[in-house]
Each structure stands twice: as C-alpha cells, then as structure tokens.
C-alpha cells in the first residue's frame, strides 16, 4: 500500500499497524492472516465465542480476548491507536437474531457505537472500516447500488443498518473522521472455516459425508456468493483508496440451482430435504460498479472457490477422523 511507504517519511511507525475487531471470525480471520503475511503489525480484539477461530492464533499477531461491547474493549482499541481500524465483530446469524432480537441488537449496536467512539479518539487513524452486510437493502429483485435506501427485514440486518446510519452521522458530526470512514457491504462469503449452518458448508459436507441438507422455501431464494480469499484484497484496496460505501457482489444463483451447481462442479450427489424458514428474504442482488472502478477484480472464481473449499474441508474432516482413531 502507498501509505505504508509514506509513514516512514512522516516519522511514524516502521510498518503499518492495523486493529481488527472480530479478527478471528470466519471472513476476517483471512484478513488477519493476509496482513500478517504482508508484515503488518496486526492486533485483534475478539471474544473468541460463536463463529470464532481461535485455533489460528500462532503468536504472529496480538490478540485481546475481550468483548468489544465493554468499556475494556473500547479502552484497548484507543490505547492501540492503529493506522487502520476495522470493525467486523458482530453476531451475524439471522436465525439466532430472530429468536434473540434484543441480544442481537444490543451486541451489534453497542459494539459498533464503541468502534465509532474509539475511531474518533485515535490520534494516528488513517482509515476506519465498518463492516455491514448486503442484507441492509432488504428483499429486492433488482441490483442495488450504494445510493439505495436501507430496508432491513430481520433483526440482524436491522442491527447492521443502525451501524450504517452511525457511519453517516459520525462523518457529518465529527470533522476528524471526514473522509476517513469506509463501509463494506458484501454478499455471502463462503470458504473453509465457515459456520456449518450456512448453505455452502452444508452442501460441501453433504458431498463428503452424505448428510442431508435442508432447502428452505423450495430453493427459490436468490443469493450472490464470493469466495472468502477474495475479501482481503478488497479490504486492502478500500483502506488505501476508499471513501463512503462499497458493495461487494458475486456469483448470483438461486439456492435450487446452487445445489445443482455444486453437484456438477464436485461431481458428487447432494442429499436435500424440503424445509421452511421465517423471516427469509427471497432476493439479494447488488451492483458493485463503484468497487470495480477502483480496479479490483476477483482472484478466485466461484468454481475454483468451491473446489478449494471442498478440498480443505475434506482434509479437515479426514484429520479429525484420523485423530479420533489414534485416541482409540
């Protein structure tokens, strides 16, 4: 990144420092590993609970096992005073949010408030990224760009839309944050280490183990998918050049056709069963022209991502089986 070279000229740190809340989560564990490999000073704040991957911690980055909803989490962030700050910590399970709306709202809104407050208290901050979701646009059968109105349709997406409104208000209210905030609204990511309740991990595991996958609402739902290892380069680009909101779209397909696609790419039959789900949106479609105008293109195509996920999942499951046999 250009800014990394500039910091030496300004007499700042020898290498850029980045702080990531939720840096052990499925998606952002890859971002953490990416910046570690680039030689950055990486600090993660993560409560190491649901959806976390604490096993990736190898001492190559600083880890604070703290709930970012707390005062302690806020104080650590301010004390770390990074050049780049990403707030990705959140409860992201839609089904859980439907059953526990208040807990989801408290967690996601309060942690995001702490993030914005910490950002405006940091002295060396160059860029702050708030990680939202495509679900803030609601159910829509047309491609939405970043100017579209927010229309969240479940407790999870509502809690993330609150953060989107916070971004706008903090940009407007606090001059020190002007042109320093970028918001990421991504479609569904998939890859190894993803929670097994998500659709692609279920399909992959069905291909490996034969488990039955519930398909909601006859598979009519339309989603976009992007392989997770594409995300770190997007994050890096936006930390360097981004301002405002950026959509990240991907390979668009109905769930019904996704099952067929996975079977075709992997050459393995998938076992499914009909199911229903309340609060389910039919369509999520986004326009990511704004991101592509910055020159970004995906490194991993959808099919390649599927194969990589299959290979890594098969290896991980095989390792677990061998381990259990060894114990016997």
UniProtKB/TrEMBL annotation:
Organism per entry: Candidatus Vogelbacteria bacterium CG10_big_fil_rev_8_21_14_0_10_49_38
InterPro entries: Epimerase_deHydtase, NAD(P)-bd_dom_sf
Alphabetical list of SUPFAM superfamilies matching this protein: NAD(P)-binding Rossmann-fold domains
Pfam families xref list: Epimerase (PF01370)
Family according to the record: Belongs to the NAD(P)-dependent epimerase/dehydratase family.
Name of this chain's protein: NAD-dependent epimerase/dehydratase domain-containing protein
PANTHER family linked to this entry: DTDP-D-GLUCOSE 4,6-DEHYDRATASE-RELATED
Residues covered by the NAD-dependent epimerase/dehydratase domain: 18-248
